[in-house]
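Progress report, Aim 2. The chain analyzed during this reporting quarter is listed below.
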Amino acid sequence: MAIDAATVRKVAHLARIRVEEDKLEPLAAELSGILAWIEQLNEVDTEGVAPMASTEAVKLPMRDDVVTDGGDPQAILANAPKADRNFFVVPKVVE
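Predicted structure tokens for the chain:
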């Protein structure tokens, strides 16, 4: 799969990343190389291979699910840049 400069420009815009015009072509070539490598991985036969999260057969330790910091909104929101009525205030991210 080949990526062109227009696609890089669009993805950079969607990700809110500024990419200079002279960097678009080299970045497109680099991303195309990465996708070509990923396509090579699709050719590997994984039939009969069990999915795993680690190379070691380790059982993760479990703990009791206990609330430890709840019930004190002032303490929880003490370091928040902005709070309103015991809630975090965040900037709007949907256009």
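The mean pLDDT is 89. The longest strand covers residues 83-84. These observations will guide the mutagenesis work planned for the next reporting period.
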